[in-house]
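User: Um, any thoughts?
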Amino acid sequence: MLVETENLVPADKLRQELDKYVAAARRGNGPIAVTLDSEVVGFFIGRAEYEAMVGAAVQELLQSREKGPTITHEEAQTRTRQRLRRKSRPS
């Protein structure tokens, strides 16, 4: 998942000024890229932004499943029974 932001903050500064960044996240001013030794190591985002990103990812997954190969409920039951029978047979 690509996250674009111009908000960069070193990890130490984020720790020192956490209240400031929590308030910014609540206002929707994120995402904030957290850096360590000039490398982005994570992102600090508000709950609403997180839920929107996760919701979008779930929707994308569900839509891809609808387009992909599927089987009926009955076929799933049949395959499950077959696998269980194979596993329950003595060796």
